[in-house]
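Objective 1b. Sequence-to-structure analysis of Acylneuraminate cytidylyltransferase.
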Amino acid sequence: MRLAVIPARGGSKRIPRKNIRPFCGRPMIAWSIEAALQSGCFQQVVVSTDDDEIADVARAWGAGVPFKRPGTLADDHTATLPVVTHAIEWYHHHGDTPTHICCVYATAPFIRSEDLQTGFSLLEREGCDYVFPVTSYPFPVQRAIRITQDGRVEMFNPEHFYTRSQDLEEAYHDAGQFYWGLSEAWLKKRPIFSPVATPLVLPRYRVQDIDTLEDWERAERMFEALREK
């Protein structure tokens, strides 16, 4: 069985009720649910939550909520791996055996069903444990600077002060949308950011981290611009 797990706890702090806050006309989580359902990749799309209101919204948009996530996996410090592992183990306990699991973030409105399809194809073709989308940094990370305690600046890598940007290796970061993985990899808690993973490269205009209200406003403007195109 191929399973989509959408983690969505209720206690978000920086943007309260972030998972179900309206984003471009619908609850934020609805965009992730819709992409997962439309991809045709999954036998089941479920939301892992500790929150009754989020569960109701998830069901209204077509996701299943077959279990309630325990509070021990719903605090500010809970990582993705144990949440997905909990979902897999719940299915094992109830007689099902998920083979391929995709963790889909609830706050990823730029996710596309075709990217989920491509990710699954890569997972099968490449013989890896995980596939997840990445995008490139717009500026060379080797030339990054920090602001010191006395209000001055210094480079993280001063040896690259005179290196031309085009001569520096391109760097990428997690797009924060989804992670395809084999059940065994999730259960054994193999690290995702490692040689066992294959990247799916996305253009930067389809990636936006949403952690602050400023991020939210920027994301809505980008999203509307893409829909108009």
